[in-house]
Design goal:
single chain, about 280 residues, alpha+beta, outer membrane lipoprotein receptor (LolB), chain A, 11-stranded antiparallel β-sheet, two-stranded antiparallel sheet, 13 strands, about 25% helix, globular
Length: about 280
Amino acid sequence: MKYSLIILFFLIVKTTIAQEDTLRIIDILDKMDSAITHHKTLEFKFYKEERCTDHNEYSISEVKVICDSTYCVYMKSNSPRDGMEILYREGKNDDKVLINPNSFPYFNMNIKPEGSLIRENQHHFIYNLGFQSVQEIVRNFRRMHADSLDEYIVRDNDYIWEKTPVYKIRIEYTPFGFYDYKVKEGQTVDSIANELFVNAYMIIEANEKVDDYDDIEAGQIIKVPNNYGKVCEMFIDKKNYLPIRQVIWDDKGLYEKYEYKEVKTSVNFEKGELESGYKDYGF
């Protein structure tokens, strides 16, 4: 009887694994989309690498984020600016980012999130932390290429990344390139990037005469990418279906890499934990 139960247990496990292994790419992406929508409160260690013109920027941070009706994020840098704290609460503090630099000039600063000071050598806004950006990019790609997804999306072998079982999905957009875009009245680099679901920093990098996100005018012809990247690689956690590793390449090579480690979902933050007066913060 004992051995029969053991055999039955392994048969159940084997069957479960086999069912997981036969998940279609579309099913995995659907589960990922649903998981991102469902998990409103997150805590994680964030490892970032971004190409910035002539060098790569690296950082490691501890992040707490609420992606509910209003967006709130607290970030503490471990590297390269050890101890720097950033707090952003949508609709609060005149919608500015509160920064404790933990170094000179040794006082708190309030800066607009769209400002060039906080966006220097950054691919994204402070309110892009979390998984919503990749959710929107993948949703748009699936919508634009609904009839040809099999041409561009592949599922690599599953394996263990950082002790976590993951699905590995690759979006390989072989027609990737840049085309001429005529700027419309009132547009900025950011608004164009949002319209096309591409990265604003990539647009600036591709245009020598564009030095900032507002440095364009109506009628100007600029180069814009026809997709977010040439190759996008996602490691999707088999347990919570979140894309905990994202790597994007363009025509020049590695463009950006984001890794989410020690991820906690559905976190019950203490009262005031995403406010400047919280006991553990240095604001």
